[in-house]
Amino acid sequence: MQIAELSVLLVWGAATALTIALVAFAIDLGRRTEERADARAEARTPAAVGAGSRPTLAPASTLPATPPGDTGHGPARRRAAGIAMSTTWLGTALLLVAIVLRGIAAGRTPWANMYEFTLVGSFMALAVFLGMNVRKDFKFLGAFVTGLSVLFLVLGLNVFYVAAMGVQPALQNYWLVIHVGVAISATGIFTVAFVASVLQLFRDSRDSGSPYLQRPGFRWLDRVPTPTSLEALSFRLNAVGFVLWTFTIIGGAIWAEHAWGRYWGWDPKEVWSFVIWVVYAAYLHARTTRGWDGRRAAWFVIVGYLCVLFNFTGVNLIFNGKHSYSGLNTDTTGGA
Amino acid sequence: MSDKATYRPEGIHDAFTEGRAGDAPAATDGGPTKPAGGPNLPTLGWRGTLRWTWRQLTSMRVALMLLMLLAVAAVPGSVLPQRGQDAAAVLAYLGDHPTLGEWLDRFGFFEVYSSVWFSAIYILLFVSLVGCIVPRTMSHGRALRNRPPKTPVRFGRFPATAGARTTASPDEVTTAVARHLRGPLRRLPTFRVDVGSEEPRLGRPATRTVAAERGYLRETGNLVFHLALLGLLVSVALGQLLHYRGQAIVTEGRGFANAVVDYDTFDKGAWFQPSSLSPFSMTLDSFDSEFASDTVAFAQARDFTAHVTVSEPDGGQHSDQIKVNSPLTVDGAKIYLQGNGFAPEITVKDGAGEMAFSGRVPFLPEDTMYTSRGVVKVPDVSAGQEQVGLVGYFLPTAVVEADGSARSVFPQPQNPLLVLEVYRGDLGLDDGVPQNVYRLDTASLTPSVDDDGQTIKLLVKPGETVELPDGLGSVTLGEDVPRYVALDLRYDPSLAWVLTFSLTALAGLAVSLFTPRRRVWVRSWETTDDDGRPVTRVELAGLARGDDAGLQREVDKALAAVPGLADGTGHDTSHDKTADDTLVDDHQRTATED
Ligand code: HEM
Q: Which residues 6+ apart lie within 8 Å of B22 measured at CB?
């Protein structure tokens, strides 16, 4: 009991640390922007002239490269970035401990209901983000990744929370560890890729002169990488996510064969996993099809990620399928 | 990345940089065209039209559209109830929405995944896939025998370049770099490598060259993936045709034989052979269940085990068990534990005192406390007596409230109680219309009521006999309450194939997505340094298919393999390194040199 409560406290602690990180990342983005503003003003004129049919490329070729990671201008900025990264590490570590304690309290793998899925999914997104930052500088993603994580954690604590307990017979299987674990990892990776694609669209629109995005409030967009680089980043993450998702589906089918007596039965969760898979497969094809790359590919990522979110929330809460393991409804008789 | 955005260095336009064949614009040479002006519009002729349609169908753009359509078409099946999953819900929906429901039904919305339109989409998709993959497989087969492309004349505008000076001779450089690029495995070289020489050209003296290419596996993986999808589709379809599946409810101490007649429900594929029913039989010896009793997860199911004895066709017998996550396999057929409940032993005597019904009646659990609903139909009464129907609940651990209402508070049989309502009249069983055994149609029956007009509820404990109202006789509940299990037996010979093709697809996918496809060229020649001493000049260039963050590293590693590198001259890589150091790769920017 007490362990379970401690776990909840730690989740709140993690959410707090990540909120601080969110603010610090935002300040960091803002500060970088001021430094960039002048350079951009100069570069913009030739860029606009040569824009033509492919305006997205103009900034990349006319501006000096805008490496987001070139640190070293101004101690204040470095301080904000430093605080942001260390609080993200702290929040992620707290979350990890909270997850482990949750597992101890329940006496099983800590990802068997929606609340736990939110915790581990947020952890995965944060871990992917931190892992990416070990070798290179991807701090521009920080504000968004921590922001989404805080949102998920608070939602989890307030909406999805259920007490720690064991699971029904249908879930007592090593496939719970594998299938759900891989699904959560894929979700974490898709989350980061989603952020990259959204940034890609914003930056692309700003570069091609969208009046709304010309407002000073969006100057920070000049500090994120070019749309092409963001697209490439998103693709690499999505490729990994897609392979993991494929494995999630195969693992789920093997488990369903054991637990439910059929490997595929078009249960709502299966339908939506399939839809997600097809959307991301379409995304991979879109990238290699002329006229469907760039912005349209990013839209695929967004649609795909919305499907991922819906598969997790909507399908659990609205439809009544065999996957109703959210822990929020009590109408099952134990899958048997 | 955009085709337009990807820079193509001169001299090497081929499939590697151009993308795929299936992406080419559709045919414009599609057969004879009639002169314009007449009433006939220009036409492609039927062969041209066919060819045009085929090219369209096998184009990437159409594959993309079909994939999107497939995703959209799959959604209604999760929103609307489906016959295959929940036939009762479909009936309820049709009842609630008579007009809309009828139209939806007409268009197959209650059987989305076997509907004409859903099937049409995926069949077209797979036709498109075959049309796309077969030519690719053939051209890949040819490409596998190809040599790496010749070393380009200029390295300047390649996305990754490097250069250095060394004291080693061009021959030594060439040998060392070629060995490095081939890698340690002779049979499975990392790069396919050609070494060569060039005549003096463009102000360069004679040079030695290395041309290397890696990543043929990428396309192999891609083809394997798509072919495995095809195999998957075929094996799933075969499974559908050959499978059979039967459901039976078995109570403790009883058994069933694997024969069509012994199943409560049985369905089979079109190519099913009765001979694939292996003639074994099985007895349920006992059934154990465990439920949590702590406050947090009170009454949550923890474990179900059915202990069975299997009699094999050859006469052998053995005991085994079936659990929720571990089906029992007998002769390739799998037996699943799909449900469980109580089947109280109920005896009914009619008003004349004659035995009218005796048997175990499965009650279906309706909640986590196993409040279970069941029906007893008693048509075989003595002449002159009215037929009797009993409807009610079995409560494993009953608590009777002050107002007489009863409920179950735990799923184990700690205080079993049967609560029954009594109906009399014509049960309608003699009409020959099949009836649901778990439902009593009370519309034409008369309920037994007390003086206040309230429906009478009989409470029967194990071992008790209770008089039925209105002189209808009596009902007895057996001393022990047997449990039943709902078993689901399934035979699908395609399972191993389905699994194999899925895993092959996964492996092919991973290989195709994560194998880098790269070319590296090295050129070295003799020259002199600033002080006039003889040195060897080495230059390298790299090119990748698509986005490849590791390309520069690959080129740098090849450079590092050069022996006798002069200090300080090492990395005059001359392009904008900051971008590559800090960011994901960005060919446009890294290729700004020259
Ligand atoms: C059942 C339908 C299909 C599915 C689920 C599917 C799935 C996929 C996936 C996941 C990839 C990613 C692997 C990679 O990027 O290398 C891929 C690649 C590819 N697919 Fe498909 N595909 C389907 C149908 C088709 C069809 C009909 C075509 C031909 C018109 C096609 C042509 C290709 C090609 C050429 C690639 C390689 C793209 C590249 O080189 O990056 N696919 N497919």
A: B58, B59, B60, B63, B132, B135, B136
